[in-house]
Amino acid sequence: MTDEPMPGPAGDGSTVPPELTELAAALGVQCEYTDHDGRLQQVSVSTVVAVLEALDVPASTPGAVAASLDRVRDDEWRSMLPPTVVTREGREVQVPVHVAEGADVTAWIELEQSEQPVVPASATPWRVTAPQATATGSFAVVRGPRVQLRQADVYAEPRTVDSRKVARATFTVPADLPLGWHTLHAESGGQTARTPLVVTPERLELRKKVARKQAWGFMVQLYSVRSKDSWGMGDLADLGDLAWQTAHNGGADFVGINPLHATEPVLPVTPSPYLPTSRRFMSPLYIRVEDIRETAYLSAADRSLVEWAGEPVRELSEDSGPIDRDAIWEAKKAALEVVWTAKRSAARQTAFDEFVLEQGKGLVDFATWCAITEHLDGRDWPPELADPSSSAVTTLRNALSERVQFYCWLQWVADEQLRAAHRAGLDAGMRLGLLKDLAVGSASHGADAWADAGVLAQGVSVGAPPDMYNQQGQNWSQPPWHPRALAKAGYAPYREMLRTVLRHCGALRIDHILGLFRLWWIPGGARASAGAYVTYDHEALIGILCLEAQRAGVTVIGEDLGTFEPWIRDYLEERGIFGTSVLLFERDAAGAPVEPEAYRRAALATVTTHDLPPTAGYLAGEHVDLRERLGLLTEEPTVLRGQARAERESLVEALSRRGLTTFDPSERELVEGLHRFLKDTPAALVGVYLTDAVGERRAQNQPGTDTEYPNWKVPLADSAGTVVLLEDLFGNARLRSLVGVMNEEEPEVDPPR
Question: pTM surpassing 0.90?
């Protein structure tokens, strides 16, 4: 019996057996879910088994399920302390401590006092036997006062675990601990244990200078916004100019940008900003070579090399065709290698060294991955290089130390230019500056997957179940965090990623923030629709996000769209995290547009999203035409076109009834009316897609496609398809008119709660 496989092949609708359901529930695997139409859907047995196996829990036979259940029930009793304790400020929490029955036990907390970058033993951190790091990441923690804990009068029946009798003592963590990353210690019978204790803010508060008046800004795909000086795609210098222009000439308070996450160091370059090799580090594609200080001091010969490298791609900035990242990276990489060899002043070299030390082991691992990827030149990675801490990796890192330094330097240069872009917006009067974007995950073959393999689930990828706009579901080809492994790592990889991403911005948008509550796991080789939701410790993940954002002084916006449980929005608002309201999606039970007064105050409101055509194209039904051409529809096109017409008519009716448009508006009048509608909402933040401002009709991305559509390669153009350069933005009549709409005076309101 125990050798028989679990019943029910994939998709056969078989009921999940009770024991398997219990095991799944204990591991946070949901055996059913409610779809976008409100219908309850059952997950197949084979999917549940595959997801449990990805969680390192054997479940392929009834015997394996029974053995796994026994182990899971006793799992927390096997460790003296929990893997990590996360709590909120002002809250008392009780922590279990497991010791041998009858043994005395004491527990105490060492408070975080400060954190300092670890200085590697070698003078060059990219040439070391093993980059040094504490359990909390690449920082040495200087500990503050000790807080002795009192044992609570809580009795738990001892139990036999792995042939030994284990008792549970409960200690009370006081409510008056300061925010921070502390360490909880326990000692019993000569054995000691310690675990991170994270005290997080109860809620984030929107900064006062933004809170009382609605703020607006442009939402842009930076690569698409090019200037005459660009090398074929928008860069960080263009971003600084855009931020200054929109603040100085347009009165905007922020510029929201696509993720700037790292791409491959070799060709081909993945175009999607949402499928990076690393979420923590940046793509050097966005560097403006001429703005690196050392470029100005190159010899005439070296300066000529930089100019020659840029010539073939500069002219691409006025080309309306797809953006050619491969050509751009070849040109920029050649120029950057010339600048890299230039001597830096003592102050500049010190700044670079300090950046490397601050970013620590994570940066060195990332740069090592880049150097090895470049070195292998398309060949498969040998098994001995799979572990970043292996001797083989150490040997190769040392042999490639010059290239490791180069890739560290690229991150420093990009960080400096990002800081300058953010400062340009603030200096021009923006209240928030840059609004950055954090992708859901990173590619399965990338730097994060290599460096963080121990805290990522293997054999599965992340995606989304079918919905109205993606009727076959979505597979994003990204490995998810392994919930238990991440907790055992003290959430250090998550924290270090957040700390880097939260630099140089006033706000951070979390793409699919619902993924911090649960993610749709798709077993390898399965259809996107054949997945299951896996839940996460949202109190820990959201709490750590709030702590790091508060320390950075950054407002957090969660993209809370899609299929989710209603309580999640209430929870996010309670924690001070803004939601996302998209006018095209905001419908009441009867299908009519939600009245503006019903919008949330604590939200970023926009008319559309980057996964739909610009508003003009969408309201003309072009999203249906595009999906039909690409074979993505599962319903009759005529039915969907009828729905699109009805949607447009309902919007026109809602706008005209409020006097925001006529009953037969032009395209431009309709787009402006929709933005006036948003201005009538209480939403604290309103985003205007730059594509809507200039009349662009082409979609930047069509979910569910890869090479069938030029996703993330569409340059900014007007309604006639003519490229709009950064220098010409405020000469565009449609843009100036829409900016005028956004700057109509609004009364001050109470800050969001």
Answer: yes
